[in-house]
Amino acid sequence: SNWKNIMLEQEEGWALLTLSRPKVLNALSRELLDELNEAVDWVEKTDSIRVLILTGDGEKAFVAGADISEFTQIEHAGQAEELAIKGQTLFNRIENLPKPVIMAVNGYALGGGCELALCGDIILASEHARFGQPEINLGIIPGYGGTQRLARVVGKNMAKYLCMTGEMLTAAEAHRLGLVQKVLPASELLNEAKSLAKQLSQKAPLAIQWIKKSIQNGLDIDLKTGLQLEASYFGLCFDTEDRIEGVNAFLEKRPPRFKGK
Ligand code: HXC
């Protein structure tokens, strides 16, 4: 890859993308969004990559939001809406990637950075991570899904509180609210993300994919339809070789070796 704003590290089963514009706390420029879109294309089509980890470069920030310096080039509502849709389209892709996405939040996750973290399946945070939607302090509102995904995770009133005040949550508070799954010392964050990625990469890929789809799509529909969706994915599992392997491995008292078929 010849990305200017993203570093790639990969090992068997997973890829780690580090968003890297450390001088501006990894703010999301249009160029970075385009590169991230390319990187997601690559992760999606590379079968050997079963898990994606995203993190930010440096000690201080995951992503401090959209690149505010680019806002001065926006002249009217239509252009701003277009930028919101550009980011939302990419973030939807990340949220719906048929592979687990682990967000390793190493510092500030603000505005678009918090919104990006919310697109992960699992959020790990370092002790000094901070989450917030400070757009209100710029006289604007979140545009990459903050008013929608945040409310679905922390509830309506907490989302309104955070978006209206711009107040930041500590990692511990975000953990208590269910936004973060695990809080770790900064020095352990990436190791934990990698070991979790390795663990997930050894699970049955189709079952992982159906868990993700069932939960993700289920949240947008009523319970009855959601349960039907779950039953249909449950059925699909029984047509896979990995189901036979998983059950046999259990009965033979050995670890399973899944193939994604
Ligand atoms: C551009 C940014 C930036 C951003 C930080 N920088 N955040 N540049 N866009 N979002 C730059 C600073 O200008 C500064 O550059 C350098 O990074 C270091 O930041 P400091 O402010 O000096 O650091 P510090 O005092 O420690 O404060 C950290 C901070 C603060 C609290 C995170 O930087 C901050 O409030 N940033 C903005 C956060 C924000 O409002 N995000 C939401 C953006 S709107 P120099 O050149 O001075 O060294 C958004 C909307 C998404 O995300 C949807 C769009 C459609």
TrEMBL record:
InterPro entries: ClpP/crotonase-like_dom_sf, Enoyl-CoA_hydra/iso, Enoyl-CoA_hydra_C. Keywords: Lyase. It comes from the Bacteria. GO terms for molecular function: hydro-lyase activity. The keyword Lyase applies. GO terms for biological process: fatty acid beta-oxidation. The keyword Lipoprotein does not apply. Coiled coil: none annotated. Belongs to the enoyl-CoA hydratase/isomerase family. PANTHER family: ENOYL-COA HYDRATASE, MITOCHONDRIAL, ENOYL-COA HYDRATASE-RELATED. This is Enoyl-CoA hydratase. The lineage of its organism: Bacteria, Bacillati, Bacillota, Bacilli, Bacillales.
